[in-house]
Structures are given as C-alpha cells and as structure tokens.
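Hello K.,

You asked for the raw outputs rather than the summary table, so here they are, unedited. I folded two proteins back to back in the same session to keep the settings identical. This is the first:
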Amino acid sequence: MDYILFIATLVAIYSILTITMNILVGYIGILYLAHPAVYGVGAYTFAILAKGGTNYFLALLAAGAVATILGLIIAMPTLKLKSHYIGMSTLGFLIICHGLFINLKGITRGALGIPGIPRPTIFGETLNTNLSFFIFTIIITTVIGIILHRILHSPFSKTMEIIREDETAAKTLGKNIIKYKLQAFMITSFFGGIGGGLLASLLGYISPTNFNIDELVLILTMVIIGGMASFWGSIVGATIIILIPEALKFLDIAPALIGPLRYGIYGMLIILFMIYKPNGILGRRTNVFSK
C-alpha cells in the first residue's frame, strides 16, 4: 500500500510539472527545454530552507519565487530568438544549471546531494507516512491545478494560442507579445518551482542527477504523449510515463537493464507519437516540434 501511495504522490507532483511545461511548449508554442533546471532550482531552494528550519509553506513559496527569477533570466535573452534556436538556448541553460548543481558544492553539496529533506509538520504532527503526505500533496496539487485550469481556460490562454498560431495577427490585435510570453514564463516557473519543492520533500533527497537531460526526456515525453495544449492530457501523460518503469519492475529483467530499457521506451514513444499522433492523446494542436 505504501508503494502505491508513493507512486500516486509522484504522479500528482509530475502532473503539475507537466502542466507547467505545457504552458510554454503547447499553449504558447515555445520550444522550451529548460524546465528541469527551473524546478530543480525550486527543489534546491526548498531543500536548503526547509533543512535550515524555515516554515514548510514559506519554503515552498520561496522555491516558486526563486524559480520565477530563473525563469525570467532564461526568458529575457531567449525571447529574442526564433524557432529551434529557442530550444537550443534553453537546453544550454539546462546544461549550465546542471553544471552549477554539481560544482556549487558549498550550496548544493555537489554530487553528494542534499539528504534529510523534511516533510511538513501540521498542528505539531509531521507527515512522515506515505498516506498523510499523499493527502497533503493531493490538496496542494489540487489547489495549484484549479488555479492553472482557470488560467488555461481564460482570455489569457486564448491570447497565448493566438500568439502561438500567428504572432503577426496578435500584434495586429494590439497584443504585447513579449509581455504575454514573460507572463507565461513566470507562471510556468513559479508553479514549477513549487512542484520541485514538493518533489524534494517526497524523495527526501535530491542530487544533480534529478535535474539533468534524462529528466528533460522524462518530462518532455509526458507533454508529447499526453497532448500539446491540453490540461488533462498533461495529467494523462504524467500518469502513463510514471507507471511505465514501475511496470518494468514486475518483469523478469535484470535490474541493470531497466534504466536503459526505460529510456529506450520513452524514445520510441516520442517517435511513434510524433509520426502517428502528433497531437498526443488529448492534444488540440500539432506540436511545436513539427514547425
């Protein structure tokens, strides 16, 4: 039962991370590949503050705030670029941040990572059990999900979709494209940073390997399979991709082969979906990678 609750909690957290990435990749059409760096900064911020005795909820908000600052740092030079050059630049930011996670040993402990990340304490009770933390996470992710759902079904979302389809038309309508893109980066980064904090709290330990290119493949696969510009598709994609490696554990496969096989499956799924179902399972548009 504890195992099932842990996986369910992981699905809830990755659903938020996938929805937030989908805002930029799906809704506004930016080839954004730096998301693991952004929620990684959120996770490290949370871990350092929470271990230092900062209130759990303040640490989560700080994780979102610091991630937002990084998101803006990434956005400002990136938005001057077009098409796949945006992807190359944001991938570069991911590589830079991953290198910093390894080399800033005085802050991140480098490859050793940060252990002993606490779980929340509410009314004097620490939520150490998987059941209590699952309920807590579901409440937090539901609140975040409702906020994001309202944003993605608002006039703001419609404007993002206009910008995605035709920036010239958006300019003709008097829309400030840079402002909308910056706002999209801020929303993605803030809630992604909180998701990173929740992930750190669930795992109890983080290291640079949690936020590298492998993690990018994972989160990108969730977005593509679930569907571009789809709130519910992001949740479906996160659920499927989290469950795949868990299913592999029940097969008669050498443990050393599970990791390579998992990423082989992810790669195959991306190729098949981009060829035969580029909109994903619940997506509403052709994905940005086909541009």
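The second followed immediately with the same parameters:
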Amino acid sequence: MTAPAASQPRLSHRLRHEALRVLFHIYGAAGYLFFYLPIIILVIFSFNDSRSVSQWAGFSWRWYEAMLQDRQIMLALWNSVFVAVVSTAIATVLGTLAAMALERYRRFPGRLFADITLYLPIIIPDIAMAIMLLAFFNLSGIGLHVWKVNFFGVRLAVPFSVIIGHVAFNISFVAVVVQARLAQMDRTLEEAAQDLYANPWRTFWRVTLPLMMPGVLGGALLAFTLSLDDFVITFFTSGAGFNTLPVRVFGMIRKGVTPKINAVSSLMLGFSLLLVTLALLAARGRDERNVRLF
C-alpha cells in the first residue's frame, strides 16, 4: 500500500519538470519571435506589390528592380562596401597587432593607458566619438582629401575622413575578439614549435596565426558589419555629396517610407548572412584541419 504513495511525489516532481521545460520552450520561442519577427516582416513586405508598407497587395519584384535602377542607391551601396572593405582590412591588421601586444606583453610602460584608449571607442556613445572626429579633422586638416578610385568598374570619390573614422572605432572591436581568442590558446604549441628549431617568424605563420585565425575572422566580420551599418560617424565625417547606404536610407525615410527601403534592408541582411555563413564554414574547416594536425 505504500508503493503508490511513494510514487506520487515522484510523479509530481516529473510533472513540474515537464511543465518548466514547456515553459522555457515557450519563453525561448517568444524571445526569438520578439527579435526576428520584425526582420521577417520587413523581408516579406519588400516583395509587396503595393506602395504601402502596411497593406499586402501581392507578390512582386518591382521594388528590387526600382532599387537596382536607382543610381543614387547603387552608388551609396558601392561607397559603403568600399569603405567597409578598406577600413576592415586596416583595422584587422592593427587590431590583431594590438591584441597580441596586450595579451603577450602584460607589463610594459603605459599598459593602463593602452587599455583605456583601446576600450574607449566601445564605451563612449557614437555621437560623442563622431563629434570628436569632426573636431579633429577640422582642426588638423587630416582626412579632408578625397580618394578617387575605380572600384569594380564604379568611379568612387571617398573622403579619407570616413575611412579613418571607421578604422578608429573598428580597431577596438577587432582587438577585443582577437585578445579573447589568444587568451584561450595553448602556449605549449608555440613552445613545441620553437623546440623543433622554428624561428619566431615561422612559429607565428605556421602555429600562432592558424590557431588565432577564428578570432581574426570573427573580429574582421564584426568590423565589416559595423562599418557597413554605421550612420552617425559617417554622417559627421563625410563631406557634401558623399553618401553611404545608411545615410542614403536616412535621407529617403525623411521623405516617406516605401517598400524600396525594405528591399535595400533585405539586400543588406542577405549579404550579412552570407558573410556570417562563409566565416563559420571557414572557421569550422580550419578547426577540423587543426584537429587532424594535432
């Protein structure tokens, strides 16, 4: 007679556990919907045949065609991509070197100042940094020259100030990601390479760099995304007549929201997802090669 009574607390505990599990699943699904449902709606309404952004009138490619035929939007897109590519390349090299210096050489004169200046662009608001960069460029005259370049057949006129501004805040993000990767690395692998008569330069290229490459790729991807999406710093540091895609979209919104803006946003979203996928595949393939090697 005591067996059923003893099994009831067990059954009650199992029911509570199942109820909590279902509740956590519902909570997780609600969180995903809260974050991603607006993005899904934006992508769906980019194919809306109506000019209204709130009423569905059927499937159509008209706004993507209008976007591709809009010369100002395409020029702003090329400006954004060019600035993002150049600033990411520079920031990745400088940020990686800064991360290695801070992680490998923990005690040197000015270490505290280096830490403060490295993390400062992450902490301060974008508007404050934009005003500081604008004041610096106006007082020093640096960055006021225009870089005229032919980028994949498109003639661009890019101010140096925009690239310098993007590099200034991207270095910090790259350095933080790479430094986190370096902190998890096993230093004995580098010591083993040196025991096998590899000089420091060969050790770096054959051991250190492949091991830290996931962090470098992650920092570069983050820098590229931030540069492509930046509005405030670009708006303050760019000259008249130069627009990146976020600045151009802001100017379009002031005149009214149309599905063309949804098409532009969907295009940027798809491009960002493609970059994330390629970076994850590259990092996974490199990790598998490292596992087979060691």
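The chain has a mean pLDDT of 79.

Happy to rerun anything if the numbers look odd on your end.

Regards,
P.
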